[in-house]
Amino acid sequence: MAILVYIENIAGAFKKSGYEAVSYAKTIGDATGQPVTALSIGKVDATSLENIGRYGVKKVIAVNTEQLHQFVNQAYAAVIAEVAKSIQATTIVLSNSFSGKGLAPRIAAKLDAALADGAITLPTITGEAWEIKKSAFSGKAIATQELTAPIKVIALTPNTVEAVEAPTAIEVEPFEPQIAATDLTSVIQDIVQATDKIPLPEANIVVSAGRGLKGPENWGIIEELADVLGAATACSKPVSDAGWRPHEEHVGQTGLAVSPNLYIAIGISGAIQHLAGVSSSKTIVVINNDPEAPFFKVADYGIVGDAFDVIPKLIDAFKAYKNH
Amino acid sequence: MKILVCISNVPDTTSKITFTDNNTAFNTTGIQYIINPYDEIALARAVELAGNGQGTITVIHVGDVSAEPTIRKALAIGADNAIRIDAPPRDAWFVAHQIASYAKAQDFDLILTGRESIDYNGSLVQGYIAELLGIPSISIAKKLDINGTNATVEREIEGGKEVIQVPLPAVVGTAEGVAEPKIPNMRGIMGARSKPLDVIAAIDIPALSHITHFDTPSPRGNVKLVDKDDVAQLVELLHSEAKVI
Ligand SMILES: Cc1cc2nc3c(=O)[nH]c(=O)nc-3n(C[C@H](O)[C@H](O)[C@H](O)COP(=O)(O)OP(=O)(O)OC[C@H]3O[C@@H](n4cnc5c(N)ncnc54)[C@H](O)[C@@H]3O)c2cc1C
Ligand SMILES: Nc1ncnc2c1ncn2[C@@H]1O[C@H](COP(=O)(O)O)[C@@H](O)[C@H]1O
């Protein structure tokens, strides 16, 4: 019995959600007395690999095969399953990131494993039966799932647990996987990535705006507020539908579901479909000029006022807070 | 071009979600069902790619007879025929096995699903089907084009996007951007009544997991309002009370 945690990288850099998965795996390992091995696939330098030791894992298997320098879902799933078998892992943890969502079912199918998708808690363990909670009905409910198969795959929702430092020496073991040509038929033609921006699914703070902002030309204050807070930006569906903002920023039932520590909603009415994607945020702040806006009913803090008046003041207030 | 579109039947997005039997079962009383919004996008793209005799579109649903209005709507939007696999859709693993087992003998060029269903939000069916059939899969496609025997897909990644060329057959989970949902017209609605809807029996698949119960998130306390001329107070509350900055 062992635990394997797959830690994803973007252009060689491990992601925050990857370290969260490592910490999560370590907590399960400590509770069940199982060793935890990390797995990295792709071109990652030695320093970054050793850095995983900061989160308490003593061994990392590094797959650096040239053909896997870019992410191909099918091949990565095969490698993760192969490594899991080679160390006889009965628990496989990964992040429920965009790539993770593509990998998890393929890995589970290969291993005949039960799959906890989008886990938001640690497992409650009763022998072979593990109970894990996940969000369901687009954030309107929480489902408790019981995994009964001997092998378990857990895809962890970003921002669920903190990456906790517990530094230890780490051994890096290179691994040459068997890769079938049929798993490598997809070809990546282009990657466009804004490296200076905080990815929305991983952000601790999200500044989100809706139709109340009137037009795309007014997003300067939203971006400035986000900059001051080190936040990601998001928007309501009509805003992305109108092309004021890119689709990737659309949150809600038919967009991205996010659960940051702080969600600031500006000029968003709080329609049920919008709330579905943001209601699991830890703290919600609403800024709206209509005191009757439904969003106030589910907010922790609110300001009734005109965004164009309030946001510049708020930017100044956060700057003042940062500077002292 | 032969396309299979997987359709799930989900509660309307305005539904109030409650549970019965000691919070172990979803309360379907008074719930209106719709085609999963992402599946509407998949279907719309299928109609663009294979409509008007350029190919055939089959829609497939795993579920009981109560989903037939949703299936008929898919036919009205432009699918040529429909398959219903007659069993409650226990979970994604079960559903994917049913679909893969049907698709195996059919040589579809493209299998489309939505990026996720808005009820159980798994994003799983697509990857499971692909793995069971041993073909490539793309989750969360924002764009989908076909060039001969390949699909060119734009996939969402954290903070950006990736363009991938995938040989067909492949399974693609569609999200916003792939197509605009289509509203059925009168001709489509009339025509849908006579299009074939075949019902087939499910295969037996052992369960690996199940949902034991549901909780509804605890309501937040009352909102604390801060005066618009004293925004510094909000900063203070976020720091010392909510402890989020
Ligand atoms: C099937 C379906 C799926 C959907 N999925 C989603 C989804 O995933 N995400 C989503 O967001 N929506 C979704 N919607 C749409 C949703 O129902 C709402 O229409 C949408 O969320 C409203 O966006 P909004 O709040 O930006 O705009 P509006 O409802 O127009 O609200 C604008 C708000 O701005 C306020 N305002 C105006 N001027 C100012 C000002 N100067 N200062 C401050 N406040 C101001 C107004 O008081 C108002 O409350 C979906 C709808 C359907 C039918
Ligand atoms: N019962 C079902 N019948 C057919 N297709 C389904 C069913 N459930 C889910 N799907 C498909 O799988 C996609 C993803 O669902 P899920 O993995 O449950 O999030 C949906 O968008 C549908 O295309």
TrEMBL record, chain A:
The keyword Transport applies. FAD binds at residues 211, 267-274, 288. Residues 3-188 form the Electron transfer flavoprotein alpha/beta-subunit N-terminal domain. Binds 1 FAD per dimer. GO terms for molecular function: electron transfer activity; flavin adenine dinucleotide binding. SUPFAM superfamilies: Adenine nucleotide alpha hydrolases-like, DHS-like NAD/FAD-binding domain. Keywords: Electron transport, FAD, Flavoprotein, Transport. Pfam families: ETF, ETF_alpha. SMART domains: ETF. The keyword Electron transport applies. It comes from the Bacteria. GO terms for biological process: fatty acid beta-oxidation using acyl-CoA dehydrogenase. Its cofactor is FAD. InterPro entries: DHS-like_NAD/FAD-binding_dom, ETF_a/b_N, ETF_a/FixB, ETF_asu_C, Rossmann-like_a/b/a_fold. Belongs to the ETF alpha-subunit/FixB family. This is Electron transfer flavoprotein subunit alpha/FixB family protein. It comes from Sphingobacterium corticibacterium.
Automatic annotation (TrEMBL), chain B:
Belongs to the ETF beta-subunit/FixA family. One of its GO terms (molecular function) is electron transfer activity. It comes from Sphingobacterium corticibacterium. Keywords: Electron transport, Transport. Coiled coil: none annotated. This is Electron transfer flavoprotein subunit beta. The keyword Transport applies. Gene3D superfamilies: HUPs (3.40.50.620). InterPro entries: ETF_a/b_N (IPR014730), ETF_b (IPR012255), ETF_beta_N (IPR033948), Rossmann-like_a/b/a_fold (IPR014729). PANTHER family: ELECTRON TRANSFER FLAVOPROTEIN BETA-SUBUNIT, ELECTRON TRANSFER FLAVOPROTEIN SUBUNIT BETA. Residues 23-209 form the Electron transfer flavoprotein alpha/beta-subunit N-terminal domain. It holds the Pfam family ETF.
